Amino acid sequence: MRRVLGSVRARATLAASAVVAIALAAAGAAVLLSLWSNLSGQAGTQAERTAREVASRLAAERTYTNLSLDDEEPVQVVDSGGRLVAVTEDLERISGSGVDRVTPQAPAGTSGDDDDDKADEDEDSLEAGEIGDASSSSGSATIDGETADYRFATVPVEIDGQGTFTVHAGAPLTAEQEAVSTALTVMLIGFPLLLALVALVTWLVTRRALRPVEGIRGEMAAITASEDLTRRVPVPDTHDEIARLARTTNETLAALEESVERQRRFVADASHELRSPIASLRTQLEVGVAHPELLDVDGAVEDTVRLQRLAADLLLLARLDAGERVADTRLDLSALVREEASQRVGDRVAVCVDTESVDAGPVDAEPVQVAGSRGQLARVLGNLLDNAQRHTRSSVVVTVRRAGEWAVLGVADDGAGVPAAERDRVFERFVRLDESRTRDDGGAGLGLAIARDVAVRHGGSLTVRETPTGGALFELRLPLA
Q1: What does R_g of the chain's alpha carbons equal in angstroms?
Q2: Cβ proximity of 198 and 15 under 8 Å
Q3: Taking the model in full, what pTM does it have?
Q4: 359-408 tens-digit pLDDT
Q5: Closest C-alpha to 449, from 472, 427, 424
Q6: CA-CA distance, 267 to 273, in Å (whole number)?
Q7: What is the CB neighbour count within 10 angstroms for residue 303?
Q8: Scanning 166, 254, 343, 430, which has its CA 20 to 30 A from the CA of 283?
Q9: How many CB atoms lie within 10 A of CB 461?
Q10: How is the chain split into domains, by residue range?
Q11: Fold of 241-309+313-321
């Protein structure tokens, strides 16, 4: 039960049914109130018409002794002294008209001072034979043993020489009550049927609308079970949110597939790169154990250093892939360049910090402040210098300049350069464009990949282009602090 109520289809059906139920209840109440008000108004009009007819006859005949009253509707005639002088013959009980008596009273010889004063007041408001404005009220009456609810109308009439008489007449509300009862019965039967129809339609429409979602869920479950990231979820032939969800899911699966494939290649390449120095080192050590005089200590140290550098590169890439937060330290890029260049005294080609370069711009005398990790930026510069040293013929030039809101560090060599078609691929991991070069002569193909990852995580970029002499110029752009 909890699983059913927890589904989107069930919640949508319940919500739609609740809204429709509230709307139907409000509409039904409004209809019943309006119907009762209109029918009650009609009964009041009928009661007023009956009262005015009796008042008109009373004004015309100037006496109530021969007044004929309807036996089916309650009518009372009261004189100026408050005495009931005429009433419907079979009236047994009445309430709500203002006069509860049902038996006529004989008129007295004189009405007394109070009656004369009341007659004088009525005469001030009504002229002889004039019928006044009607007022209404609700009550009940019993005629010939049958009790019913009535709408009463009260009409005053002035009789010349006799004072003001008041006529009370009622119209039954039985028809109105039956009409309201019938309407209520229809609503009590029809509203639940309509509500059930709404719930059924909502359930079917929601199921149809969510069918693609179930297909996406099922396919995702199958992908998870099979671990086959080449599969894709079905995209419905619509232009709604579900279709966009399916397309986004497929894009996520494609990115995940690419990431997993990249990780697999990385692990395979790392294993391959590690295997070579480890195998070489093991061979040299085994030879040294068997023949100490043949031990190549320099070669073993070189392999160990290469292995240490490769392990450090792999560790740094792992930290970058894990989203390690970059330190927010302000540093002078120009000073960093001068410091790193001064430490490379044993390089094959000397590193020149150019202060007069027209193409790239000089190393600024003023500090070029950037924010980031000093160690990682120094690693980027070292990797760029190592790459330039491996490919240059006679010179390596480093420049630092400002370009708007950017600090630009350039490392240029006069080697063969990087072909235009390979200028993006060169930053991929374990990529070496010179395949004929041995691993002993070059790196593992991680230096430029590390440099670009560090640049991106510092909010910058690393690109390569051609120098005027045909060599390669690597430019690192970082936002100024």
Answers
A1: 52
A2: no
A3: 0.50
A4: 344 444 568 899 988 888 988 998 999 889 888 888 899 999 998 899 99
A5: 427
A6: 10
A7: 22
A8: 430
A9: 13
A10: 1-226, 241-309+313-321, 326-479
A11: Helix Hairpins (1.10.287)
